[in-house]
């Protein structure tokens, strides 16, 4: 809890602009991953838009709820919603015209890029509100991961976050600490954000390419 006399100062205008730009990029990246996931399930146009919406805005909405931020980020920036609808329409028309069949590999790139962007943005937003480092890291994880969980649930899949075994939330957690550490060492905010985005996205892509896996639960056979 922070007392009223210890409220943090508002960040400078350029920092707010940078955060908004990165959040817009993350929103579009996750919207595209939602479109591809919905297309793989052969959902109709409304289904595509709904899945894209929850994928792009789910994590940031939960972050804003937990940090008691009103209105939500996509309500403050309604242009995000218009951009998402445009992405949905353009992607559906393109895939129908070109007869593109989305694959899991196609989903990987926008998902990894969105992971890096939202991890950095979520951690940065929490730190700007004066939250402690651990809370900032958790906000980065929630912002970058919760939308994908909602996407998989709506597509009637077991969330990849829980079943894929390839590091995902773990890289978001590590990326959040990277951002916290970078800011505490005095790096310029833009450089700390860039470092976190690139490192988190690259780690996710590399772990998939190399087949790195998280330890999984193995039940022992029962004694007769």
What shape does the CA trace take?
globular
Tally of DSSP helical segments: 9
Number of strands: 0
- Radius of gyration (Å): 18 Å
**SSE order, one letter for each helix or strand:** HHHHHHHHH
User: How large is the share of residues in beta strands?
Assistant: under 5%
Low-confidence sequence ranges: 1-10
Output mean pLDDT. 81
User: Describe the biggest sheet?
Assistant: none
- First-residue to last-residue Cα separation: 54 Å
Percent helix, as a range, is over 70%
> What structural category do the secondary elements indicate?
mainly alpha
Please give a structural write-up:
The chain is mostly helical and 224 residues long. It contains 9 helices and no strands. The protein has helices at residues 13-40, 45-66, 73-76, 78-98, 104-128, 133-154, 160-163, 169-184, 189-210. Helix 1 (13-40) runs antiparallel to helix 5. The protein is globular, with a radius of gyration of 18 Å. The termini are far apart. Residues 1-10 have low confidence and may be disordered.
What is the fold's blueprint, element by element?
Layout: H1 13-40, H2 45-66, H3 73-76, H4 78-98, H5 104-128, H6 133-154, H7 160-163, H8 169-184, H9 189-210
Helix pairs in contact: 1-2, 1-4, 1-5, 1-6, 2-4, 2-6, 5-6, 5-8, 5-9, 6-8, 8-9
Descriptive terms for the model:
224 residues, mainly alpha, disordered N terminus, globular, 9 helices
In short:
This protein is 73% helix and 0% strand. With 224 residues, the protein is mainly α.
């Amino acid at each position: 809890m922070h007392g009223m006399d210890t409220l943090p100062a508002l960040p400078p205008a350029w920092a707010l602009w940078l955060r908004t730009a990165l959040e817009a990029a993350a929103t579009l990246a996750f919207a595209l991953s939602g479109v591809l996931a919905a297309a793989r399930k052969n959902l109709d146009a409304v289904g595509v838009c709904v899945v894209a919406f929850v994928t792009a805005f789910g994590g940031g909405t939960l972050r804003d709820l937990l940090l008691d931020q009103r209105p939500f980020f996509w309500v403050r920036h309604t242009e995000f919603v218009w951009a998402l609808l445009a992405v949905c329409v353009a992607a559906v028309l393109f895939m129908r015209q070109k007869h593109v069949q989305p694959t899991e590999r196609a989903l990987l790139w926008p998902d990894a890029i969105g992971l890096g962007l939202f991890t950095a943005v979520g951690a940065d937003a929490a730190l700007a509100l004066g939250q402690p480092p651990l809370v900032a890291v958790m906000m980065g994880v929630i912002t970058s991961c919760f939308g994908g969980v909602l996407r998989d649930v709506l597509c009637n899949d077991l969330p990849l976050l829980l079943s894929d075994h390839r590091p995902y939330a773990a890289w978001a957690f590590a990326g959040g600490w990277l951002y916290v550490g970078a800011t505490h060492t005095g790096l310029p905010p833009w450089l700390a954000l860039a470092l976190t985005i690139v490192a988190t996205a690259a780690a996710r892509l590399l772990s998939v390419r190399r087949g790195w896996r998280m330890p999984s639960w193995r039940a022992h056979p029962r004694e007769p």
